[in-house]
Amino acid sequence: MTPDDPPPEAAIAVFAKAPVPGEVKTRLAGVLGMDAAASLHTGLVRHALATAVHARLGPVSLWCTPDASHSFFERCAAEFGVRLEVQQGADLGERMARAFERARTPLLVIGADCPALTQRHLAEAAASLRDADAVFVPAEDGGYVLVGLARPVRGLFDEIPWGTAAVMARTRDRLQRARARWVELDPLWDVDRPDDYARLQREGLLAEVLS
How far from 63 is each of 5, 42, 49, 66, CA to CA, in Å? Predict the structure, then answer.
């Protein structure tokens, strides 16, 4: 993609939990306290939504769990002009698979834990789907912070050990079995542990997230 090319169209789905103290950012709650950890989570979700909307690639939706009734989700819909959807499925893989099955255009799915993910990363991921079946931004911890599909890839999310360092490696196996063509962009880091929070501060992103 050159500077003169129009941005490719791709919908973006942001997956997020309701910011209930004690149920989000639990590995940081011991350091920050449950309320502060939940506040960090809300800031991360809003940051992810702002990044997705400002990328101007296509419609943005917020996929909520356990449902869309939390007032925070309603405020996000009003502030960012996004559609609310409810995640459905027994695990993360099934929930993402259902989102991709409903997509009518190429779709990028992101979480809210990677404030290092920028509009440029989203544009590069969308552009990759012009020629590839799938695109990923791997996470430094072995998972991934973005997955995009031009169309659903059968079996891609089956039997993945979510939350472990084997997620991306197992996903590559699924892609090879499906004979899918995929692109991996440079790895990024997400915010889960106290060391990640320290990095968030060190790299000057904390104030941006909480603004």
Answer: 30, 14, 11, 10
Q: 35-44: b or e for each residue (b if 16 or more CB lie within 10 Å)?
A: eebbbbbbbb
CA 117, 121, 127 angle in degrees (round to 5)?
Answer: 155
CATH code of 11-206, in short, is 3.90.550.10
User: Mean per-residue pLDDT for 62-88?
Assistant: 98
pLDDT of 1 over the 60 cut: no
| Nearest-angstrom CA–CA distance, 20 and 81 | 23
Q: Residue 158 above 70 pLDDT? A: yes
Q: Is 86 in a helix, a strand, or coil?
A: strand
**Which H/E stretch holds residue 117?**
none
